[in-house]
Amino acid sequence: MKLIEHYLDSLETYLPDEMKQDVRDELTASLMGQVEDSQEELGRELTSDEIEALLKKLGHPMQVASAYQPNQHLVGSDYFPAYRKALEIALALTVVITIVLSVFTAISGRSVIGVGINIFADILHNGLYVFALVTLIFYLMESYNADLSKVYAWSPKDLRFNSKRLGLSRLETGFELIASVLFLAWWNNIIPSLTYGLISSETAKVSLSADWQSVYWSVNIIIALGIAIGIYKFVLATWDRFSLVSEIILSLATLVIIAQILQFDQFISLNAPLDENMFLVKVIAHFDKVIYSILAIVAAVSAWDIFSNTRKLRV
């Protein structure tokens, strides 16, 4: 029976001192009972291999010892639903705050790609800290038996919604937020952009025309509101009536601004006579085509958003 003795000795090393003897006595009685039953059934003593098989069936000493100890999980089943929801909200807010702070505080002298890499690294770094902090808070809450009755307080009447909620991808929404924040930074010259000169030299400089100033604040307001709604969607990870209606209104406003932009006398300005450099003429024509293409794409996306969000409202 040396295998059993060695097994129990090993198991004791995973137990606190005050539990060792009681657990050993209980398992000794259980194991010896199983051995005696097997020997009576077989009509002989068990071999070393048969005892080894019996102990393997019982499990590793560390696993068996764990079953006798409390607090074998960081967050128990009673606290886990609240923990998961709190973690989702905390991580969502962390992503949003990190995106904003990374763009507006760490982009000097960097390209858009550099800003994106910086944002991704900061999200991972801050997300790990938030994950650890939220987990620690709920571990301590469970350890001290914190009351969650207010968190789980509910009524069947509260389950009625004015509109059916539709799930959406946080990953997709996150990319939209990053793109919106980067565009807002570009639009306000926080990231080096076309407004610093598309092509510049001692004799000529190509830049956005002064007509763009007429939509400067309109674009800022729409993008800022879009970011706010994006944060709302990112945190909840659902569509609801508020977000759908807000998106439709912003899409309509976007179409109005595009119509206003199309009335501009010119998209690009040049501080040198065009007839002095035919290359610049071609450059301006090229950028006009690019801007028209971008406006067409944005208009098509906005129109599709109006259509699809209107359909969601009817679900």
Task: Chart the SSEs and their pairings.
Layout (H helix, E strand, L loop, with lengths): L1 H11 L4 H26 L5 H11 L2 H7 L12 H26 L6 H32 L22 E2 L2 H18 L11 E2 L4 E4 L7 H21 L1 E2 L1 H21 L6 E3 L7 H36 L2
Helix pairs in contact: 1-2, 1-4, 5-6, 5-7, 5-8, 7-8, 8-9, 9-10
Regions with little confidence, pLDDT below 50 for 5+ residues? 193-203
Order of helices and strands: HHHHHHEHEEHEHEH
Q: What is the subunit arrangement here? A: single chain
How many angstroms does the end-to-end distance come to?
Answer: 70 Å
List how many beta strands DSSP finds. Answer: 5
Helix content: 55-70%
Quick one: overall form? elongated
Largest sheet: 3 strands, antiparallel
Q: Summarize model confidence as the mean pLDDT.
A: 80
Model description:
- This protein is mainly alpha-helical and 315 residues long.
- The protein has three domains: 2-68, no CATH class; 75-152; 159-315.
- 66% of the residues lie in helices and 4% in strands.
- It is built from ten helices and five strands.
- The protein has helices at residues 2-12, 17-42, 48-58, 61-67, 80-105, 112-143, 170-187, 216-236, 241-261, 278-313, and strands at residues 166-167, 199-200, 205-208, 238-239, 268-270.
- The protein has a three-stranded antiparallel sheet with strand order 2-3-5, covered by helices on one side. A two-stranded antiparallel ribbon has the order 1-4.
- Strand 2 (199-200) and strand 3 (205-208) form a beta hairpin.
